[in-house]
Amino acid sequence: xxxxxxxxxxxxxRALFVDRDGTLNxxxxxxxxxxxxxxxxxVGDALSLAHDHGYQVVCVTNQSxxxxxxxxAADVDAIHARLNELLRPYRAHIDAFYYCPHAPExxxxxxxxxxxxxxxxxxxxxxxxxxxxxxxxxxxDVEAGKKLGLLTALVVPPGHEESxxxxxxxxxxxxxxxxxxxxxxxxxxxxxx
Length: 193
Ligand SMILES: [Mg+2]
Ligand SMILES: [Zn+2]
Description:
This protein is α/β, with parallel strands linked by helices. 34% of the residues lie in helices and 16% in strands.
């Protein structure tokens, strides 16, 4: 039966996949307390702009501190709620969070550069990888993005160029975009249409 006027056939959406630590907020290493979370400058406006351009914003993050016992899944949920609270003044939000709770030695398929969480997000939110992008601060973000055919953007903060280039050379994956800040990376993603 054809959908009625109130149910237009929905097209797959495009996603801006974002890493969390070191990308949206300073990486405080196994952070447990939500009240210590801070956004990098420009993140709120950049995410608001991404929504204006029709992107769903999906955060995919490795949180091995859960399996290691440094914090709990509830702590991680509280941090994600706090991030959205911090984004509210910018009329921005993260539509969905997905995290891997495992340590690397567990060998799961959800820890980046594994792609299981991205696949789950795509299924849950009907996302299309070909028109989607990822912004992260590590080559594992770029590796995951490449496997999925995403546009990849790496944030390389000033002063980190050398160490990042070494990491890129080791991993053998080159991002499509390199930018010195998250907000600039997002602008360049949006500029690609
Ligand atoms: Mg990171
Ligand atoms: Zn995992």
